[in-house]
Amino acid sequence: SLNCVEWSLLPPATEEMVAQAEQLKGRFQGDPSFEYEYTEINAEDAERLFEDGKEPMIKEESRLIATIEQIDRAVGIIPRGAFVKTPLGSVHENRNFEGLSLTEAKKLSSYFHFTEPVNLKNKTLLEKADLDPSTDFLDSLEHDIPRGSWTVQLEKGGTVVVLRSLLWLGLTFYHVPMTKQYGYIYFGTGEKNLDLPFML
């Protein structure tokens, strides 16, 4: 939105947009038509861009789309059991999900990345034996690298569990134990915290 009255949807991100946005550093300008020039671009990418006859530039709108995609992939999370996988492989919202207990809600292992699993495929058969294939089909937060990239806190006298990402500062996830209420929101600069390994 340019006037906060009329809103339009962003188009889906492409892999090329994400790759271009990862090369940019610094904060957003606030103007969707602003064009960034690549100052630090490797020779291979520069050669490919100049072959196409294009100036190496990316618009802020494309960077915003790619950044939202990166945040969703890296820190978009759900509580365990909120979605189920059928024997045929389709994933659906679990209508029987009534929330995590307070004890479970305080554990990182009770939350999953809501994206295609990566670490799950690398587990041994012995590690997979304890998992329920209908609910444990995504990657758990407890195995995120670097360790300690999530904080778990209790708010409102222990009635709300809040998870915050230290990798994407400004990402806050909440879950009200014993209810279906959960979600996340991002209020940040749009920059990944690359200093995180040195901060832990």
Low-confidence stretches: none
Number of domains in the coordinates? Answer: 2
End-to-end separation: 38 Å
> Rg, please?
20 Å
Shape type: globular
* H/E element order: HEHEHEEEHEHEEEEH
- In order across it, which strands form the biggest sheet? 7-8-9-10
Beta percentage is 15-25%
Number of helices: 6
Mean of pLDDT: 83
Q: Structural class, please?
A: alpha+beta
User: Roughly how much helix do the residues carry, as a percent range?
Assistant: 10-25%
Protein name: Radial spoke head protein 9 homolog
Keywords: Cell projection, Cilium, Cilium biogenesis/degradation, Cytoplasm, Cytoskeleton, Flagellum
Organism: Gavia stellata
GO cellular component, one term: axoneme
